[in-house]
Amino acid sequence: MEKEKKKPVILITNDDGITAPGIKNLIEAVKDLGKVVVVAPDKPQSGMGHAITIGVPLRLHKVNLFEGIEAYQCSGTPVDCVKLAVDKVLHHKPDICLSGINHGANHSINVIYSGTMSAAVEAAIESIPSIGFSLLDYSLEADFSAARKYARIIVEQMLQSPPNKHCVLNVNIPIATVDEIKGVKVCRQAYAKYEEDFIERNDPHGRKYYWLTGEFVNFDEGTDTDVWALANNYISIVPVQFDLTHYKQKEHLEKNWNILSKEG
Amino acid sequence: MEKEKKKPVILITNDDGITAPGIKNLIEAVKDLGKVVVVAPDKPQSGMGHAITIGVPLRLHKVNLFEGIEAYQCSGTPVDCVKLAVDKVLHHKPDICLSGINHGANHSINVIYSGTMSAAVEAAIESIPSIGFSLLDYSLEADFSAARKYARIIVEQMLQSPPNKHCVLNVNIPIATVDEIKGVKVCRQAYAKYEEDFIERNDPHGRKYYWLTGEFVNFDEGTDTDVWALANNYISIVPVQFDLTHYKQKEHLEKNWNILSKEG
């Protein structure tokens, strides 16, 4: 007789902080697919990119926020949360790491600035298949129905057939009802960027300060991008890599630069 | 008669902070190759990855640290420095952006955690060719002679023939004298990672806290990697991309996952 298959361990984190509605919705969506353990930042950490905490020590506190779920809040960044969870909470690698559901888009170039996605990438570096989820709606009162439904479908598929242990998926969900969603598309990252515009103000002492603002501008007309899919009410999945070598440019330099070593 | 060619504008930043010896050495190495403008963090920002400052405003102050060089210290991250420099200091794109010289290695997976490299990547997103420089020696008293010599050679080559406006190079310099350096190699990023080991301590009130430590472990036996080149006394150059799409895995998912939309 075959032994009952062990329940997969699902590590959940985010970058909006452990009290954000998005992480609660993610937990609800997948909690019966395995044993869920939550380690998430104790405060919002948006825009932290792949930051890690070197100069100050980290705190980790057990919290009772989600019924029947082991959960901890951590004073560090999303990447710190993943590292601490594996080393000091689970004491082994989980079967999968989920990050989110982020309040706001992480499509296109946002993947680089996103704490949500950096947590997922960190897990994949550690050989833990992972998925970051983001909903394009920033508001605290956002409707997570479609996000919850599709997060569950994608996590089930990933648990059944993970492409490999270093696989990390960037999943974005459009602002749409369950009925409006047209389906799930695998996409490439659109080439887009922020056009910065710092707002300049004076403090009460007459000294200047600057607020970072910016407009997201898409330069990519492809219909195979995440930006296109989301604008057309599809869920977008972009598989992400952490080998950042630009192989084409490597070849170009090897052929054209004369300052390179001739041997080897 | 041909007009005299305009001097290129060289933006310099770093992540160790504007008072670090590394940035002074980089300025010295290239200051006669163009008009140098410095915008760098007012304090160390190591390990900040691609973090940006959203929740607090930024300060920018002119400083007189480098003879004859326009320089500013900024309260934000390395990425903030690049954004502010372009929008509020230069009011146009510089011809090249240089970041460093970092005190410590940014080879292999370090590229993901590095503020030095994130500043360079941010510039490339903005269509400014850029180079991040890192010396494998952490110490404040490090010998920058070889780093200075090769930084200059590489910047000259990049100004003469930049592969394209989105080109960003990750340059690492081994701990070696000028005579010991064997040359310059274009490499791929080695597959390596940190094996985390958090040190657990108790504060005077009996509460636990954790220090992040970790050992760098190289899993990559290739002789075409940055780790190999550096161990063999070569300067390593890895061209870096910011399209993080994992195209192979994209194909794999498209073929094998049955939750995807059939149309289009």
Please give the order of strands in the largest beta sheet of chain A: 3-4-2-1-5-6-7-13-8
Question: Please, what is the average pLDDT of chain A?
Answer: 93
Question: Runs of chain A with pLDDT <50, length 5+?
Answer: none
Question: Secondary-structure element sequence of chain A?
Answer: EHEEEHEHHEHEEEEEEHEH
- Give the terminus-to-terminus CA distance of chain A: 58 Å
**From the alpha-carbon coordinates, what is the Rg of chain A to the nearest angstrom?**
20 Å
Structural class of chain A: alpha/beta
- Under CATH, the topology of chain A can be stated as Stationary-phase Survival Protein Sure Homolog, Chain: A
Looking at the chains present, what oligomeric state does this protein adopt? homodimer
- Which protein chains are joined by the largest interface, and how many residues does each one contribute? A-B, 86 and 85 residues
Query: Sheet with the most strands of chain A?
Result: 9 strands, mixed
Tally of distinct domains of chain A: 1
Measured as a percent range, the helix fraction of chain A is 25-40%
Please identify which CATH superfamily of chain A we are dealing with.
Answer: Survival protein SurE-like phosphatase/nucleotidase
| Strand element count of chain A | 13
Helix count of chain A, per DSSP?
7
